[in-house]
Amino acid sequence: MLEPLAKPAWTPAAAAHLLNRAGFGGTPEEIAALHARGLDSAVDSLLHADDDSDLFPPPEASVPEYMDKYRRMFPGMSEQERKKVQTEMRREARQLMDDLRSWWLNRMRWSPSVAREKAVLFWHGHWATSVEKVKDPFAMWQQNETLRAHALGRFEDMAKDVSRDPAMMRYLDLVQSKSGSPNENFARELMELFTLGEGHYTEQDIQQAARAFTGYRINQTNRRFLMANSQYDDGVKSLFGFEGNFSGDDVIGLIAADPKCARFLARKIWRFYAAENPSPELVEALAESYRRSGLDTGALLGTIFLSREFYGPDVVRHQIKSPVQWLVQLCRQMEIPLPGQSDGILRQLGQMPFAPPNVKGWDGGRAWISSATLLLRYNTSGTVLSGADVNFDALMPVKSDSCDLIAWRLFQAPLPPELNAKFSAYLKDHGTGIAARRDLVHLMMSTPDYQLT
Amino acid sequence: MNKTLHTRRGFLRTSLLGGAVAWTVPIFLERTFFTLDAMASQEPMGKDSPILVVLQLAGGNDGLNTLVPFTDDAYFRARPGIAIREPLKINDAIGLNPKLTGLRGLYDDGNLAIIQGVGYPNPNRSHFRSTEIWQTASDADKTDSHGWLGRYFDSCCQGEDPAVGVSIGSQTPQAFAAAEPKGISFTQPEQFRFASEKASDPAAAEEFFRSVNETAGESNEGGSIGMLQGHSQGGGDTMDFLRRTALDAQMSSDKVLAITRKSKAPVSYPSSNLASSLNLVARLIGGGMPTRVYYVSQGGYDTHSNQTGSHDRLMAELDSSLAAFVADLKAQGNFQRVVLMTFSEFGRRVAENGSGGTDHGAAAPLFVAGGAIKPGLYGKAPSLIDVHDGDLIHNTDFRSVYASVLQNWLKVPVEPILHRAFPTIGFV
Question: Which of A132, A316, B61, B86 could, after both became Cys, cross-link B344 (CB 3.0–4.6 A)?
Answer without folding.
Answer: B61
